[in-house]
Design a protein that fits this description.
Radius of gyration of chain A: 12 Å
Structural class of chain B: mainly beta
Oligomer: heterodimer
Largest sheet of chain B: 4 strands, antiparallel
Largest interface: A-B, 22 and 19 residues
Low-confidence stretches of chain A: none
CATH topology of chain A: Ubiquitin-like (UB roll)
Strand content of chain B: 35-45%
Number of helices of chain B: 3
CATH class of chain A: Alpha Beta
CATH architecture of chain A: Roll
CATH superfamily of chain B: YVTN repeat-like/Quinoprotein amine dehydrogenase
Low-confidence stretches of chain B: 1-8
Shape of chain B: globular
Distance between the termini of chain A: 35 Å
Helix content of chain B: under 10%
Number of domains of chain A: 1
CATH class of chain B: Mainly Beta
Strand order of the largest sheet of chain B: 3-2-1-28
Structural class of chain A: alpha+beta
Chain lengths: 85, 393
C-alpha cells in the first residue's frame, strides 16, 4: 500500500511516497524498516510507543494503535509536526 | 596512538587541532592552522538535528561519533570513518530494554530521549564505546558504535532506578548520565556521574557499581546521605595521575585522590563574590595540579550566567588550593554567558589550548592556557558541546 513520507524521514526513503505491506500498522512499519533500515526506531520507541510529534493517518483518519488493521487499498500518511523554535 | 602514549608519558601532542562543536541545530567543525591562530569553520553537519555530543576517537583519530535526534525523530548515533565527509547511522542505537506488558506505573519501561554523552573505551579495546543517556542510562558498543547494548546491572537495578529518580528530579533538559571515565590502567575500572544521582564506580567492567559521594554537599535542607540528591555537573580523571579526579558539582568544586573515597571541596578557595558553581571543568593534559573552571551565577533563582555579566575562567595550578582569574580578551561587562558542562575543553599542545562554547553561539579560544582569549566563531546555534581533538599528523 501507499505510504506518504514526511520530509524529516526522507533521508531514509529518498522518496516522498513508498510502498509497504502489512496486515497491521505494526507490520507495515516493520516492512518499512526492512526496506529502509533505521526508519522505525525514529518513529517508535523501545517500549513500542509512537514518539511525540508523530501522527499516523489511515485514509485520512488519525490512528494511535500499532495494532490497527490495514487492508491493501489503504493509504498511510505519516505526519510529523514540530512546535517551538 | 603514539601521540596518546606520548601524552600519557608527559610529552605534548603536536597534531592539528580541530574543535567539534555540537549545537541544538546541528554540528560544526573548526580547524586550526599550525599555530592555532586562525580557524576555519565547516558545516553545518546534519543541520536541524539536536546534537548533544560529537567526539573524535583518540585511538584512530579519524572516526567521529555523533549523538543526535530531532524534534520529531527518536535518538540515534551517527558514525563517520572519514572525519565527517560521510556518515552512517547506528543500526541499533542506545535503547532501554523493553518492559513486559502491563507493568504498573513507576515500573514501566523507560525510553531514551537522547544520548547525551559519548566516551571512547579503553585503548586496548579499539572498538569499544560508552554512551550516557537522558533519562539516565549507560550503554556500551563493542563494534565502533554500530550497535549498542544497555548495561542492565545499572539501568535495571532497583536501587539505581530509585537513585535516578523521575523526570522531576533531573535537570531542566532532562536527567542525564554523563562523565563516563575509563581508567587508562584498567579497562574494567569505570566511573560515571548522574544529574542527578551522584558519582559511581565499578571495578569489574560495569557488572557491579557503588556510589562515590562521601564529602560532597547537596542543596541545603536535603540529606547528603541520600544519593539521589547529589548533582555532579562534570567529573574528570587526570590522564597522567588516574588516581586523581576533579569535579564541578551543583554544590561546589571538589577533588578526590584515591584510594580515599572522600571528596574535598577545593572551591572554597574561589573568590566569595564569584563562588564555585558552574558546569564545565577542564584538566591539563599532563599536569594533574592544573585545572580550569568557568563559574556561573548560582545565587537566587540560579541565572546560570557569568557572575555579574563578566565572563572569566579560573585556573588553579596547585590542585585547587588557590585560583587565578583569566578574563583577558573576554567582554568586560554585559556578557551573560552560559557554558554547558561539555562545552569547554583543552588540547594537548604546549602551551595548552583552551576552548569554550556559549549557549549564545560563540566559540572562544586561548592558545596559552587561558591567559588571553579570542572569539573564533560566532552566530552559531546554541552550543551544547565543544571537544578539542587532534588529527593524525
Amino acid at each position: 500500500m501507499k505510504v506518504l513520507i514526511p520530509s524529516p524521514l526522507r533521508s531514509y526513503t529518498g522518496e516522498r511516497e513508498v510502498e509497504a505491506t502489512g496486515a497491521t500498522l505494526a507490520e507495515l512499519l516493520a516492512d518499512l524498516d526492512r526496506s529502509h533500515p533505521g526508519i522505525r526506531f525514529r518513529m517508535v520507541d523501545e517500549q513500542e510507543g509512537l514518539r511525540p510529534h508523530l501522527r499516523l493517518f489511515v485514509n485520512g483518519e488519525l490512528v494511535r494503535e500499532l495494532g490497527t488493521k490495514l487492508s491493501p487499498s489503504d493509504e498511510i500518511q505519516i505526519v510529523q509536526a514540530l512546535s517551538g523554535g | 596512538m603514539a601521540t596518546r602514549r606520548a601524552q600519557a608519558n608527559g610529552a605534548a601532542a603536536a597534531g592539528a587541532v580541530v574543535l567539534l562543536v555540537a549545537t541544538r541545530k546541528g554540528a560544526f567543525i573548526l580547524r586550526a592552522d599550525g599555530a592555532r591562530r586562525s580557524w576555519k569553520l565547516s558545516g553545518p553537519i546534519f543541520l536541524g538535528n539536536v546534537v548533544h555530543h560529537l567526539v573524535l576517537d583518540p585511538r584512530d583519530r579519524r572516526t567521529l561519533l555523533m549523538a543526535a535526534r530531532t524534534g520529531h525523530l527518536g535518538p540515534t548515533v551517527f558514525r563517520s570513518a572519514d572525519l565527517g565527509r560521510t556518515w552512517k547511522e547506528a543500526s541499533r542505537p542506545p535503547a532501554f530494554a523493553r518492559a513486559p506488558e502491563g507493568q504498573p506505573e513507576g515500573k514501566k519501561g523507560r525510553v531514551v530521549d537522547h544520548t547525551f554523552w559519548l566516551a571512547p573505551g579503553h585503548a586496548d579495546e579499539p572498538q569499544a564505546w560508552y554512551a550516557g543517556t537522558s533519562p539516565q542510562g549507560l550503554f556500551r558498543s563493542e563494534d565502533g558504535g554500530d550497535t549498542w547494548a544497555p548495561l542492565p546491572a545499572l539501568n535495571d537495578d532497583p536501587q539505581y532506578r530509585a537513585w535516578m529518580g523521575g523526570e522531576q528530579d533531573g535537570t531542566p533538559d532532562g536527567p542525564k548520565l554523563h562523565s563516563i571515565l575509563v581508567d587508562p590502567r584498567d579497562r574494567d575500572h569505570l566511573y560515571f556521574a548522574m544529574s542527578s544521582g551522584g558519582v559511581h564506580e565499578s571495578r569489574d567492567g560495569g557488572r557491579r557499581w557503588a556510589p562515590l559521594v562521601e564529602g560532597l554537599e547537596v542543596v541545603e535542607e536535603l540529606d547528603p546521605t541520600n544519593v539521589t540528591f547529589h548533582d555532579p555537573h562534570c567529573v574528570r580523571l587526570c590522564p597522567t595521575r588516574p588516581d586523581r579526579l576533579y569535579q564541578q558539582n551543583h554544590c561546589g568544586i571538589y577533588r578526590l585522590d584515591r584510594p580515599s573515597s572522600r571528596w574535598v571541596r577545593i572551591g572554597k578557595a574561589m573568590p566569595r563574590s564569584v563562588g564555585d558553581i558552574g558546569f564545565p571543568l577542564v584538566l591539563h593534559p599532563r599536569d594533574p595540579e592544573v585545572l580550569w573552571v568557568f563559574p556561573m551565577d548560582g545565587s537566587g533563582v540560579w541565572p546560570r550566567t557569568s557572575p555579574d555579566g563578566k565572563p572569566a575562567a579560573y585556573r588553579s595550578v596547585n590542585g585547587g588550593r588557590t585560583w587565578r582569574r583569566q578574563s583577558a580578551g573576554f567582554p568586560r561587562q554585559q556578557a551573560w554567558w552560559t557554558v554547558k558542562r561539555q562545552a569547554m575543553s583543552a588540547d594537548g599542545h604546549d602551551p595548552v589550548g583552551l576552548y569554550l562554547g556559549t549557549t549564545s553561539g560563540e566559540v572562544w579560544a586561548s592558545r596559552n592556557g587561558g591567559e588571553r582569549w579570542s572569539c573564533v566563531a560566532r552566530h552559531l546555534p546554541e552550543i551544547y558541546a565543544v571537544e578539542a581533538a587532534e588529527l593524525r599528523r
